[in-house]
Amino acid sequence: MRNMTRVKAHNTLRRGAPRARRRPRRRDMPARTSLDARAPRGIPAKAPRDADAALPTRRCVVATGIPARATSAVLASARAAAPLPASLAHVKRARASARTKGTTEVVVKLASEGASASARGDAESDAAVRADVLERHADVIASVVYADVPAEGPEDRETWEKACAIWPVSLTAPAERETETPSDEEAAYFRKWTKQACEGAKMSGNCAIIVDPARDVEIARGVDESATHPLRHAVIAAVDLAAKRDVAMYPEKEHVEALIEARRMEKLERDALEIAGVGDDAKKRKREVQTKGSAMTEIMGRPYLCTGYDVFLAREPCIMCAMGLVHSRLKRVVFAVCDNINGALSGPSGIRRLHGVRSLNHHYSVFSFDAEEI
Predict the structure, then answer these.
(1) Burial level of 306, CB count in 10 A (0-12/13-18/19+)?
(2) Do 203 and 329 fall within a single domain?
(3) What average pLDDT does this structure show over 28-32?
(4) pTM over 0.70
(5) What is the domain extent for residue 90?
(6) Domain shared by 80 and 229, yes or no
(7) 209 and 234 share one domain
(8) For labelling alongside 189, which of 41, 84, 263, 343 has CA 20 to 30 A away?
(9) Mean pLDDT of all residues in 80-87
């Protein structure tokens, strides 16, 4: 009789009766790794460079054979017709020619994407460059060629000398001071909250905890919810909760609402000026009316969102989340595990090391425990 019962139960399962939910396989779950034996490592804004590696370069269109007496005029025309991007502010636009004594070479413009085989053709494809540089100074420009310039501003004399061997550049100041090694007290504080983030990530994959370091108090906590919405990563969820807390604790005052409306109207006016063709003046005014974070704090009567707070994560944030932390004005970002594929803070310089991008209006310090798993 007992055997028949077993056969019936087996047949019932085979016919499609509902099974109990499968427990996650061990490989689906993060392995437990204690952070007690690990010390947080500061991740500098710029990745260390291999001393033997070639410097990264950008291709430019260069006018050559210019008599020294005409260099200033050609240089002024090139700057007006084709300003170089801010990322190449370290590049000097003119240099003495090594080929013909008494002549110079001037960077006319950055080479176009998918540039043609002819540098002159590339230059002539830009109407302003063609009219204001090539045609205006046709009598002093001997030829137009492609040349490489260093893509990054050197921050030490050794790199500067290597860069100048490619094209003359200026020695630039570091984007920010190097991340300091945390004290024993700070390391214990980092470890405490990072361990909590790891605990919170066991079921979701990642967890972000925003903490006020002055009081050692949790402000907001978010876990990865990307299964329900692709943008609901742990960081985004935590910042969203912090923003809701902010609104609840500090209701907007009338003068703040008036300021927001005034800024909105200013933006509409600037956009109208740019459409009307007053681009340069409009950009200048835009820079003049920008409000610094300290001034905004004074106007609003409270810190902006997450200013001065720390965030602790189980895993390194992606580019979207790292940029969200920039806009939220976090002070420090600490995570347990690096992400070599999607991480935005521990990779090579540039977009994979977002806190080192100079053009951003806020920079935070980054630390990692370099754990293999949570």
Answers:
(1) buried
(2) yes
(3) 43
(4) no
(5) 57-164
(6) no
(7) yes
(8) 343
(9) 91
Nearest to 368 by CA among 39, 36, 40: 40
Rounded Cα distance, 352 and 329, in Å = 19
Q: Which of these, 318, 311, 316, lies nearest to 364 by C-alpha position?
A: 311
Residues 6+ positions from 273 with CB-CB distance below 8 Å:
279, 281, 282, 285
Tokens 């790292």 appear where?
A: 322
Helix, strand, coil share of the chain (percent; to 5): 40, 15, 45
User: Closest Cα to residue 355, out of 337, 331, 371, 338?
Assistant: 331
Please choose, from the candidates 239, 249, 234, the residue with its C-alpha nearest in 3D space to the C-alpha of residue 309: 239
Q: Which residue has the higher pLDDT, 86 or 322?
A: 322
- 231 and 320 co-located in one domain: yes
What is the residue-wise DSSP string for 173-188? PPSSPPPPPPPHHHHH
| Residue 239 belongs to some domain of the structure | yes
At 371, list the tokens. 């754990």
Nearest to 66, CA basis, from 140, 133, 137: 140
| Amino acid sitting at position 191 | R
**Residue 1 within a domain:** no
- Using alpha carbons, select from 94, 85, 87, 60 the residue that is nearest to residue 152: 87
**Which CA distances in Å does 324 have to 94, 221, 233, 249, 318?**
39, 15, 11, 21, 10
For 150-167, how does the pLDDT look when each residue is reduced to its tens digit (9 = 90+)? 998 887 788 899 999 999
Residue count of the chain: 374
What is the distance between the alpha carbons of residues 351 and 313, in angstroms, rounded to a whole number?
A: 20
Mean pLDDT of the chain: 81
